[in-house]
Please model this.
Amino acid sequence: MKYFDAEFFNDSKLREMEDGAKEFNVPAFRENRKLVATENGGLHNPSVLLFKSSWSSGSMTSETRSFEYPRASSVHRPTNDEDIAFMSVIELGELIRTKQITSRELTDIFLRRLKRYNPVLEAVITYTEDLAYKQAKEADDLLAQGKYLGPLHGIPYGLKDIIAVPHYKTTWGSRTFKNQVLDSEAYVYRRLKSAGAVLVAKLVTGSLAYDDIWFGGRTRNPWNIEEFSTGSSAGPAASTSAGSIAYPAARCGVTALRPTFGTVARTDVMSISESLDKLGPFCRSAVDCAVVLDTIRGTDAGDPSSREVALGDPFHVDITKLTVGYLDDAEMEVVDVLSSKGVKLVPFKLNYTVESVQSILNITMDTDMLAHFDNWQREGHDDDYEAQDQWPVELRRARLIPAVDYIQAQRARGKLIREIKDSFTVDAFVGNVTDWERVCLGNLVGMPVVVVPTGLKSIENPPKGGTKRRTTVTTGIYAPPDHDHIALALAMAYQSVTDHNKQRPPIDDLGPNDVIQR
Model:
């Protein structure tokens, strides 16, 4: 009982507890495991204990309307593929709509780039080439018939390899599951397919969605390829620049959205924690993130935590009516730019008394993860895990978390959420996006954040003679749950007058005196 922090029973009570556990607890444990835990990954039999992230007492599902996207005007096809590859979704969509480029041509361009850079970046697990050309042909044929499905029509994209696509491996980045094929369609894949998007690759996730180490190697940061991308959405971040969402997006200098919890259904997606997991886009810009979010958001019967969130339209937010806070660690250029656009900026601090934020996240995440990979651990597969100081250690420790203390952690989480709600006296706030306490807090609360590139700086210890490798600088724009449109609108306003999100990493030209050590 020492490791349960329960050393207050006398010997008589301990013997009674032992007898009770043998007679009642252990048989029940085994029976329940047979019912729901023989399959790993948490794809089926979700918990009936659901987390509601909304701060609204009533329903917000009455009117879910599509966003009104801007249309790019006077877009002309660039003469070289490199320029095409760095165009936004809106721009590429206009090229396709006006038949300046076909989806087949665009698919060729992106597959060539992935294959060119993947030996260095290690960002792709599986190329879905046959499927991509099939979907590209369907997109081109529809357009020839006068049917245009919207801004994602014919646009190539990649999915993190925790998302099931039939007939292709869904490896979860793990050598245990590297040959796994799940013949089911994840909700997000179905949504993107219905919008005419073209899947070109399954992208790296760190093993079992942890960090950037996977069974095939370790994914690198395109801005500094001696550095790793962090994870767990290592491949999506690296590929976009050349899924955890904040850390890899910040490291690789791309725009990303971690949406409000429950906004995007997670059906047929590997689960770490049913009350923490979120799916969101990595893109060139906040505009692109808004387009993708509008496509993938929604509820599905396979994910009881998903809901139809009536988001406002980020393209029709009057930012001059917003009051936005900025924390001590905010990038002040973002503050100054938003102020120049008419936003009211005020110093801000989140006030809360809960001191165990990080441990609440760990208890929640690790216990939930172990429930989804109970059989994996019991069969000894943790010995084969790619990084022994990661999930193996955390999930062994999770065996010693009593149910009562898991519930106490959720009660403390509830207290934290109430305090954050009371403290959130602005429409949004700007602050560091990789501060670990804030990452934990944001996930526990379920609040949305847009990761915004804000610049580049020199790497530490550059080689003599210099290098073009850089360290990316980013910030986060946070909003209350169900107000993703506010964070997106502010990010779009910032990016409308800056070009940090348009910079290109120097993969092909590091500098004359720079040699990468591998």
Observations:
- The longest strand covers residues 449-458.
- The chain has a mean pLDDT of 93.
- Residues 81-348+425-496 form a domain with the Amidase signature (AS) enzymes fold (CATH 3.90.1300.10).
